[in-house]
């Protein structure tokens, strides 16, 4: 992950967490559904690591969210 885009990754992570909570999923439950470890999902939500588009598509599918919503950054 390029540190230049840390703020963007942070907002994506916050949006993932928001929609995850909206669907009443724990990190563990969502991670299981997208076939990753819970600690990896936690790192994505905290922007400690980047997220691939493939994984972002999977997360959007499971959460039933249009993927563009992960890229809406509210001030």
Provide a brief overview of the structure:
The chain is mainly α. About 55% of the residues lie in helices and about 0% in strands.
Order of helices and strands: HHHH
Structural class, please?
mainly alpha
The termini sit apart by: 23 Å
Any idea of the CATH topology? 434 Repressor (Amino-terminal Domain)
**Under the CATH scheme, which architecture would be assigned?**
Orthogonal Bundle
| Oligomeric composition of the shown chains | single chain
Q: Please, how many helices?
A: 4
Question: Roughly what percent helix?
Answer: 55-70%
Instruction: Give the C-alpha Rg.
Output: 11 Å
Number of strands: 0
Broad shape: globular
CATH top level label? Mainly Alpha
Fraction in beta strands: under 5%
Ranges where pLDDT stays below 50 over 5 or more residues in a row are none
CATH superfamily: lambda repressor-like DNA-binding domains
Largest sheet: none
């Amino acid at each position: 992950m390029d540190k230049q885009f840390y703020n963007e990754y942070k907002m994506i992570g916050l949006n993932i967490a928001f929609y995850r909570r909206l669907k009443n999923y724990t990190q563990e439950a969502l991670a299981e559904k997208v076939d990753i470890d819970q600690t990896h999902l936690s790192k994505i939500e905290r922007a400690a690591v980047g997220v691939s588009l493939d994984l972002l598509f999977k997360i959007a599918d499971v959460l039933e969210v249009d993927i563009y919503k992960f890229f809406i950054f509210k001030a």
